[in-house]
Design brief:
alpha+beta
């Protein structure tokens, strides 16, 4: 599966370049574990654009992924789709913001972002992939703050673009830290700040999936006005899956839990 290894390695390098905690946590777990497996990698994008789910997923299909399930997050104005691969335990979670449902001011900012890389939405100027990064000009800090007020998701995407928003340790493959609770205890011992929205652990074994995540790192970003601001970058997630009544390990996602995981890039938390 060299082609998959290459795909994930590029995403990992791009992700860890702005998420130093991920490398540190990876090394911390490697001291006790022989194998670290990714449960899923997640991405954010804009609906109704050259960067929508429907425009990005062909790259996944070429890699052998198949669409698995769809999800909706009404409060955050998001749609999402998950993908699985017959030769890999690592899933893909691809979400998009319904930006045309945001207040008018944010719609204007996002429309400018979308058109920045494309005079014609059907023919973008720059190649688009899940690792393209920001394909548009850096928004002004004023625009970033305006988006942040209406949608933290949109503000994050405006700065960081198309890249892995987070990787996820698949707890089921760990041999010493065999339960999510023990992973959390290790992280707390090393002073990592965890997402406490709805509780540190999101979901229950009855949902067949429990999750936890750190709060995002922050990176100094230079905006067009010359100012440098600390902006939330990416975070690390941890997932433990359970056997369903039919004997299969659950492969989907729980929207109520995922909704809280999204808060990991919220700087106000």
């Amino acid at each position: 599966m060299q082609y998959l290894d290459t795909f994930f390695e590029k995403l990992w390098q791009q992700y860890t370049a702005i998420t130093p905690q991920a490398l540190a946590i990876h090394e911390l777990l490697n001291q006790h574990e022989t194998t670290l497996v990714n449960d899923h990698v997640a991405f954010r994008t804009f609906a109704n654009s050259p960067y929508s789910i429907s425009q990005l997923e062909p790259e996944l299909f070429k890699l052998g992924f198949k669409a698995f399930d769809n999800y909706q997050f009404d409060k955050k104005k998001l749609l999402a789709r998950s993908y699985i691969h017959k030769d890999s335990p690592t899933k893909i979670f691809l979400s998009e913001i319904l930006w045309q449902e945001l207040p008018a001011g944010s719609q204007i900012i996002i429309r400018k972002i979308i058109e920045d890389n494309s005079g014609d939405k059907a023919f973008p100027k720059k190649p688009i992939s899940l690792s393209s990064g920001r394909l548009w000009s850096m928004p002004s800090y004023v625009d970033y703050l305006a988006l942040l007020k209406d949608s933290e998701y949109a503000a994050w995407l405006s700065v960081w673009g198309l890249r892995a928003n987070h990787f996820t340790i698949y707890v089921n493959y760990l041999r010493q830290y065999t339960h999510l609770e023990s992973v959390i205890e290790l992280l707390q011992q090393h002073q990592y700040l965890l997402n406490e929205e709805g509780g540190v652990i999101k979901g229950t074994p009855q949902d067949f999936l429990i999750q936890a995540s750190t709060m995002a790192d922050k990176q100094l970003v230079k905006f067009p006005d010359g100012s440098e601001q600390l902006i939330a970058s990416c975070y690390y997630e941890f997932a433990q899956r359970f056997e369903q009544p039919n004997g299969d390990i659950y492969q989907g996602f729980v929207p109520s839990s995922a909704d809280k995981i999204f808060e990991s890039t919220n700087s106000n938390k």
